[in-house]
Structures are given as structure tokens and as C-alpha cells.
Amino acid sequence: MFSSSRHPLSGFSPRSVGFAAAVVTVLIWTSFILVARVSNDPARGGSLTPFDIAFCRIVGASLLLLPWGWVLVRRDRAQGAGQSALFGLSPLSLRVTATVGLFGGLLYALLAYSGFVFAPAVHASVLMPGSLPLWTAILAVLVLHDRITLARALGLGLIVLGDLMVGGASLLHAFDGGEVWKGDLLFMSTAMCWATYSVLARRHALDAVRATIAVTALAFVCFVPLYAVLLLGHGVTGHLFTAPLREVAFQVLFQGWGSVVISGITFTKMIQHFGPVRSTMITALVPGLSALGAVVFLGEPLFWNLAAGLLLVTAGILFGVRAVVRR
Asked: What pTM did the predictor assign?
């Protein structure tokens, strides 16, 4: 299946592939925020730590992607082309594997899951997908020499105001002993990491599958053996080997197969067809859908500043989408 010369999506138009990738990405990203909050909140019955869930995410993705990468590397070598790294597990060069893997895999997972320990899903809904176009636009200017038009600047300004409505309030409560601000900063850092990955993927014109395999290979080699040794030697606090098997298996399937394998490939497909800035702005539905899901399914309150921040961020993203489309 992996060695066929005919691309499995060759029968569809680029527009159809890009649209389908956008729909799948939005659905998985929305579910990711809700599931991650439940899994990392001890009050909701979650027994795994953020690093435990990151371990499950990486292992789950590795079960599918590392054998795939091994096959791709062997095929490339047989044809006298291609590059490889990390013992032949990554089909990209070591330099590219290290950069995209660090930002798109390892740092993204560790920062995101840690953020859900401190802040609710509504905050993540605004600050993670909401601030993604902001970071992407800034990095696109620095790395890709992109231009920010006046209309796009206004849209980004709305996003900044929305982020301040959410994060600013939590920073004020930090003086009262609150810890929500820690989660907000982690969410913002998570968005910056994913924006860095998306711009790097565009700069190097990376194939969706190969990029996702490289990201997983780096995370597996650098994190999984080290964390397993630390757990077994009681060097870190974790519940990976004592948690219910059902909970661990669910995290492996959802976080590894869904959030990494499926959404990783579909998001990179979006970048290929629409570019990094427009791709991240297409995710304008994610903040609203995930915030609504947090209120309905998790019972989280939607305070006025959160609602205002959500509206500003969504408006900024939509405004930016119109600006890019006109351009």
C-alpha cells in the first residue's frame, strides 16, 4: 500500500483534497481540546499526568508511522534518492527532522497537555487555535518574507485583543494565588510551536506523510526511552504503569492515531494547498466549537471576558481570511 507509485488522492482535485483536509482537521482539533482537558483534570477522574499522555500520544503514533517511515526510507535508498535520519526511521534529513520534530511534535505535546492542568478548555479554545494565525503571520514574515496587508493587520489586532481579554484576566488573578495564567501561557507557547512547524513545513515544501513521520520519529527517539527509564527508576512522578489499561489504550488511540497521524497529515495537506497563513485561518471554527463543547459537555462557565475574547478572536480570524482571499 505504501509503495504504490500512484498517489491515493490523485483522483481528486486539489480543491477537494484541501477542503476535506480542513474539515477533518477542525473536527479533530475541536475534540482534542475537550478530551485533553478531561484527561488532564484530576477532578474529572483523569489519572494520567501530562507527560504520561504525551508518552501515549507518541507511542500510539509510532506504532503506525515508524514502520511506514522504515519502508519509505528503504524504497528511497533502492531508487538512489531521498534522505534519512534517526536510524532510518525518518525519511527526512536530520536537520529538518530535528526542527520540525521539536516544534511540531515534542514541545507541542508537552506544553499543550501541561496547560490543561491549570486552565479550562474554554481558555484553550481561545488561546491555542485562536492565536495560531497571529504567530503564523509573524513567522511567515520572518521566514517566508510574507507581507502583512492593512486588512490582515486589523484582523491580527482583533486576535491580540481577544487573547488579552482571556489571558489578561487570568494574569490579574495570579496575585490572588490563581494558577490559570500558567495554563494560558502554556497554551500561547503551544500555538507558537505549531505555527513554527507549519511555516517550516511550507518553507521546506514537505510532503504531508513524510513530515508527520519525521515529527513522530524524533519524539519517539528523544522522549520515549528516557521517560520510560525515569518512570521505572522513580525519577519522575507518573501513573502510566498503574493506570487502568482502558484509559491508557484510549489515549494511545485518540492522541496517537487521531491527533498525530490523521490530523498531522490533514493539516500538512492544508498547508500544501492553501499556504500556512490561510490554513491556520481556516481553523476559525475551532475556537467557537470547542468553547461551546466545553460549556455543554464539560459544564465550564462562559464568563463575559471569555465570550468577548472568543468573539474577537473569531472575528479576527474571519477578517484575516477575507483579506487573504481578496489578495
From this structure: 0.84
